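Tokens as discussed.
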């Protein structure tokens, strides 16, 4: 029997991609789910697929602390407790520091960093009671910077260290904290960027091996669920990301920059021109209104 049997798990960004796929696997292992997202239709579709007895779907924006507190309260009212929080919701922006839309940059920081804080803040009292587990979703981008993705890189580095600090704060209260670091995963976020920007696709292809590899969602879900069940401190997807993290100082050195720098004069202006033509610095789904 899985140790997720009858555990109650909150997942933000639960309507699609890694969030939805992880929800399906947890439900299959007997878990109960509180799923939040800002897109009602796909969120409802996931909830209908998994069943009302297993899922509470709540339309909630992670940038709104009160909305996240209400989602947690509704979940506890339905299921009686909260055992795990997966702070998964996030977006990406496109363009150089000079080319990105400042409003899109601010919105990304609000979702990717403040959203993690709001999610954890809302769930933490219940997690202390249940001696639960938090999984903060960071990225390989936390320690492997990419030109044209400065906002995303900064946010993922920020939430990694947020998770590190949180771990120190709540260890004595019986709450365990993990941080997930993934390379490129074949999610809507990556698919949208490749569809919008030839420069993004070329940037990935020109990275040195294995940084140029894209992993399927199923492998990510397997690692996430294993991390949740084992209350792991680190989750790496694929496993080699852990080796890259251990060499993060080398990666950020002049020698580490060399492989990327030779492509920047060609690809970064191309990305900025594509962003200009698109008229947006993020996917159509996440466009700033």
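Sequence:
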């Amino acid at each position: 029997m899985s140790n997720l049997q009858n555990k109650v798990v909150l997942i933000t960004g639960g309507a699609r991609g890694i969030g939805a796929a992880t929800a399906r696997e947890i439900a299959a292992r007997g878990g109960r789910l509180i799923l939040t997202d800002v897109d009602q239709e796909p969120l409802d579709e996931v909830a209908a697929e998994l069943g009302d007895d297993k899922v509470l779907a709540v339309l909630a924006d992670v940038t709104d602390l009160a909305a996240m507190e209400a989602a947690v309260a509704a979940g506890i009212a339905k299921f009686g407790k909260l055992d795990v929080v997966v702070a998964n919701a996030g977006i990406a922006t496109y363009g150089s520091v000079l080319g990105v839309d400042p409003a899109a940059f601010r919105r990304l920081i609000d979702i990717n960093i403040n959203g993690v804080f709001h999610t954890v803040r809302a769930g933490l009292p219940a997690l202390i009671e249940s001696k639960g587990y938090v999984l903060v979703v960071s990225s390989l981008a936390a320690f492997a910077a990419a030109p044209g993705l400065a906002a995303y890189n900064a946010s993922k580095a920020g939430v990694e260290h947020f998770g590190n600090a949180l771990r120190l704060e709540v260890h004595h209260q019986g709450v365990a904290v993990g941080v997930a670091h993934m390379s490129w995963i074949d999610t809507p976020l990556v698919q949208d960027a490749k569809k919008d920007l030839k420069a993004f696709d070329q940037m990935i292809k020109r990275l040195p091996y294995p940084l140029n590899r894209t992993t399927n969602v199923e492998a990510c879900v397997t690692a996430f669920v294993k991390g949740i069940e084992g209350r792991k401190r680190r989750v790496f997807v694929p496993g080699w990301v852990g080796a890259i993290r251990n060499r993060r100082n080398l990666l950020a050195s002049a020698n580490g920059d060399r492989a990327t720098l030779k492509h920047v004069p060609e690809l970064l202006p191309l990305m900025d021109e594509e962003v200009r033509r698109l008229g947006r610095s993020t996917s159509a789904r996440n466009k700033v209104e």
